[in-house]
Design brief:
Chain A has 161 residues and is of the alpha+beta class. Chain A contains five helices and five strands. Helices cover 29% and strands 16% of the residues of chain A. In chain B, helix 14 (511-523) packs parallel to helix 15. Classes of the chains: A alpha+beta (161), B alpha+beta (789).
Chain lengths: 161, 789
């Protein structure tokens, strides 16, 4: 077992992990941060995306020990300080960008990373950026629309409701 | 205009907040002291005899708490089929036992023959590797035609791979044959409806606890219908009395049909939890999901359409081989029969329909209902053969459909396939589709595509489906072993807020938002004071769950009935409080008032009086304000639609992309248009996935070649377009109180033939006389078809 310490959603945490403990397992099983989801076993679905030192990472592709000293943020740390939904979360609700909710944490974290790098993406850029996140419920229409809206762009031309 | 949160309002979903902040509670998120983990040993061969299983080494490994094999469940019941189908000769279908764990033989890759319970996942996985199973591999039965011809059987004891040979309607067979024989023109099409893996993003998971104090079990499981799961476990498999077994489906990450059914893993964790006295959780990894979730579709069909000289449809005749896989999943026998054959008259006045379906056992995963369930297969066959026929006789595909549509003044309409359609207007749907899809602009868009060296095709489709499943009396006659009503309890609490317990389960459909809109509208109160309780058998009277686009049409109707009862009783209480007779009381905007006076009491005051019944007329009214209703529908509901799409096809590579997709649906009345639109979007995404991308491939040895997201092509954001969705042309259902028809499956039913028809049109526009191509329409298939044309 290895002792690891890292900052998660602004709080310092420590734990003992095996050499093969994935970051996703450390978050879910040890810290009980179960908002990070596991939807596949080939690093394809993106339900486990978190930010490590500001960059989006599929937490099932990284060992917990590799995050030693890192700043990690997860879906549980995304809301505003007063507990209200942040701009991206609110856009997902306003534009019905989620149904069953299982892929949603990864979608929100991936969208946040996109908008940080590219604050006014085109629709094509949004769709390409979501290549690593699978949703089975929405047909992506409202996810793309929500991200465009979260970027402050006019989405009225994208079909209503 | 609708109220902000009443019927017809696009209210944003309240459930979103927990999902967006990471505090949803899915089965695998639930943990308590003493957790243990189950991992299954699964067959790596498709067909084999289990000679021996030696667990000695595994049992001694670190952390191992228990090991189960098929032997341990040899005496308990099998997981049954929910629908009895009789063959044309009157003999009942073959129903081989589906055990908790394979015993004697393994019958598909992934078939579980043992399970290890250990302290940790890693320990359980290591112990599974150490189980020494001597399994003698036999030739696999994979192809359906070979299965019917050969003498190698999936289930030796039944001596055939044919589960049943079903005819619908058998009395129509001769007339249909005669109509085809004497027709002016007959169009014939052979097609494959490709096997799909549902792929809910949350893999299946089951967690059991046993409470010795009361001899009680609690099962958390990824289910679309926890009561049905409880019923199957109690009545057929383990025999745990229903009053000792609570089944809870908490947040569930999508289902699409695959989580309707009871699976052996649920029984295993229950048995293990009792043996160990500790919680036991099994969660599938994605590979297990591919190997063991019930798959969908997998039909091989020949369809013929007979027409007279004017293009009037005279008959549809269909022969289908339907793969049921290695075991009968719970609805697997209903899906290719009564959810498919009864829809084979489509939207048309055709007088003769005959359908023959042979269901075939193979050494593959069980096949059952997947979004649409039988109705996509029916629509695909019909709408592809109609399109082919239009080309053969030189008719416009829209005009040929319109000519044969049932007209609005013909309802109720008795279809030639045995259903009575209650309402619809297919021409109005087609009109709307032509408008919102800007069909007039197609020629210019085709020109623009051609200027880029691409072909552009237009495809159209009309569909009808039978939803709101289903009238119990009718399905009972047809072989169903369950009733298909639903139930709701409306509990008005003393302080005036409401808990509404519903039998439908929400796993993405937004019930927690939409159902309160209905109750709020009826009571004239704020929807935020109403909460839905679902998914817990200990809290809800009963329920048959969510599938077949039934939640609102059936369970929503139960909610309406229970709310009506609440209003009736509340009026009596109000009348007492206001010292008038209850016939004088009116309910409006949450106030009970005496007609023609300014005397009134609020809904909240009535609720409080019901629970603090001072000066209460106990001889007339019981205290409390809570009512339950069971609702059994009088008929199916019949949503319908007109869809079209435009594809671009690159003749150099064969790659097809959907550029425009339009869905115009008649869902009857709509409670929350935002949610309804979202349901259509999702169906379209899955339908386009079926048409262009998704294929489940077994090799000749029964190995699943497409068992991961590296191999099975899930639609991604950059594979799909924005959709144009319209549901303004609603004709209310005539027989349920809300006038609703159901919207969950439409997109997946209407879109595959639309896309394939457009691909054919694109190839034809490039001078290639390709008349059919099978799904998924991959670049390789398109390119090959064009080279050979």
């Amino acid at each position: 077992m290895t002792k690891v310490t890292m900052t998660i959603n602004g709080k310092s945490v420590a734990g003992d992990v095996g050499g093969n403990t994935l970051l996703s397992s450390f978050l879910r099983d040890d810290l009980r941060l179960t908002g990070t989801h596991i939807g596949c076993d080939t690093s394809q679905c993106g339900a486990c995306v978190v930010h490590v030192n500001g960059r989006p990472v599929k937490s099932c592709t990284m060992f917990a020990a590799e995050a030693e000293g890192a700043e990690v943020s997860t879906i549980e740390g995304q809301a505003n300080a007063d507990g209200s939904l942040n701009v991206i979360q609110q856009a997902f609700q306003d534009h019905h960008g989620l149904q069953c909710g299982f892929c949603t944490p990864g979608m929100v974290m991936t969208a946040a990373a996109l908008l940080k790098e590219n604050p006014k993406p085109t629709v094509t850029e949004v769709r390409e950026h979501l290549e690593g996140n699978i949703c089975r419920c929405t047909g992506y229409h409202n996810i793309v629309k929500a991200i465009m809206a979260a970027s402050g762009q006019d989405v009225s031309a994208i079909a209503a409701e | 205009m609708p109220k902000d949160d009443g019927i017809g309002a696009a209210t944003v979903r309240r459930e979103d907040v927990r999902f967006l902040t990471g505090v949803g509670q899915y089965t695998d998120d639930i943990k308590a002291y003493g957790e243990t983990v189950a991992v299954f040993a699964r067959s790596t061969v498709a067909n084999g005899v289990i000679k021996s299983i030696d667990t000695t080494t595994a049992a001694g490994m670190p952390g191992v708490l228990a090991i189960f094999t098929g032997e341990d469940f040899a005496e308990v019941g099998g997981n049954p089929a929910g629908w009895l189908i009789n063959s044309r000769d009157g003999t009942p279908m073959h129903e081989p036992k589906r055990p908790v764990l394979a015993h004697g033989k393994v019958r598909h890759v992934g078939d579980a023959y043992a399970a290890v319970i250990a302290e940790t996942l890693e320990q359980a996985k290591n112990a599974v590797e150490a189980i020494e199973a001597d399994i003698e591999e036999l030739d696999a039965i994979v192809n359906m035609k070979d299965a019917l011809a050969g003498s190698n059987y999936v289930h030796d004891e039944i001596g055939t791979n044919q589960c049943f040979d079903w005819g619908w309607i058998e009395d129509n067979r001769d007339a249909t044959d005669a109509a085809i024989k004497g027709a002016h023109h007959v169009t014939t099409l052979e097609l494959v409806n490709n096997r799909l893996v549902p792929n809910a993003m949350e893999p299946r998971s089951s967690r059991a606890e046993y409470k010795a104090a009361g001899d009680e079990y609690v099962l958390h499981t990824t289910s679309q219908n926890p009561h049905l799961t409880r019923l199957l476990i109690s009545a057929f498999v383990l025999g745990i009395p229903e009053n000792k077994l609570t089944v809870i489906a908490p947040d569930v990450g999508g289902g699409f049909g695959s989580k309707i059914y009871h699976y052996g893993e649920e029984a295993l964790v229950l048995a293990a939890a009792k043996k160990l006295g500790r919680p036991v959780t099994w969660t599938a990894d994605r590979t297990e999901a591919f190997l063991t979730d019930a798959h969908g579709r997998d039909h091989v069909t020949k369809i013929e359409l007979a027409m007279d000289a004017e293009g009037n449809f005279l008959a549809f005749r269909t022969e289908t081989l339907a793969n049921v896989g290695a075991y009968l999943s719970n609805f697997s026998t209903a899906t290719p029969t009564f959810l498919h054959g009864t829809l084979m008259a489509g939207n048309y006045t055709v007088p003769n329909v005959y359908v023959n379906v042979k269901a075939v056992f193979t050494n593959t995963a069980p096949v059952d209902a997947y979004r649409g369930a039988g109705r996509p297969e029916a629509t695909y066959s019909l709408e592809r053969v109609i399109d082919k026929a239009a080309r053969e006789i030189g008719r416009d595909p829209i005009e040929l459909r319109r000519q044969n549509f049932i007209k609005p003044d013909q309802y109720p309409f008795a279809s030639a396939a045995g259903l009575e359609y209650d309402s619809g207007n297919y021409d109005a749907l087609m009109d709307k589709m032509e408008e919102v899809a800007d069909m007039a602009g197609f020629a210019a868009r085709r020109k623009a595509s051609e200027a880029k060296g691409l072909l552009r095709g237009f495809g159209v489709n009309a569909y009808i489906e039978a939803c709101g499943i289903a009238p119990s009396n009718l399905v009972g006659v047809l072989g169903s072993r369950v009733g298909l009503y639903d139930a709701a309890t409306v509990r008005v609490n003393a302080t005036g807020n409401l808990s509404v317990m519903v039998g439908a389960h929400s796993h993405g459909q937004g019930h927690e938002t939409a159902f309160p809109q209905v109750v709020a509208e009826m009571l004239g109160i704020d929807a935020s004071t109403i909460d839905i309780v679902h998914g817990d058998t200990s809290k809800i009277p009963f329920g048959m769950g969510t599938y077949g686009s039934r939640s609102l049409a059936v369970c929503g109707s139960a909610v309406v009935r229970a709310t009506e009862k609440v209003i009736n009783k509340a009026k009596k209480i109000a009348a007492h409080m206001l010292e008038v007779s209850d016939g004088d009381i009116e309910l409006k905007d949450g106030q009970f008032s005496v007609a023609g006076t300014d005397k009134s009491v609020s809904f909240g005051e009535v609720a409080l009086k019901a629970y603090i019944p001072h000066e209460f007329p106990l001889e007339d009214i019981e205290p409390g304000l809570e009512e339950t209703a069971f609702y059994d529908p009088a008929n199916f509901t019949y949503p319908s639609g007109a869809y079209c799409c435009e594809v671009e096809l690159d003749p150099e590579t064969g790659k097809v992309s959907v550029e425009r997709m339009t869905a115009v649906d008649d869902f009857g009345n709509v409670i929350n248009p935002m949610i309804v639109t979202g349901q259509v979007h999702g169906g379209l995404g899955q339908g386009i996935g079926q048409a262009l991308l998704e294929n489940t491939t077994y090799d000749e040895n029964g190995q699943l070649l497409s068992a991961s997201y590296m191999d099975y092509t899930m639609p991604r954001a950059d594979d799909l377009p924005f959709y144009t969705v319209d549901h303004s042309q609603g004709n209310p259902c005539t027989h349920n109180p809300l006038g609703v028809k159901g919207c969950g499956e439409a997109g997946a039913i209407g879109s595959p033939p639309t896309v394939v028809n457009a691909v054919i049109d694109a190839m034809q526009s490039g001078g290639k006389n390709v008349t059919h191509i099978d799904m998924p329409v991959t670049p390789h298939r398109v390119w090959s078809a064009m080279q050979n044309a």
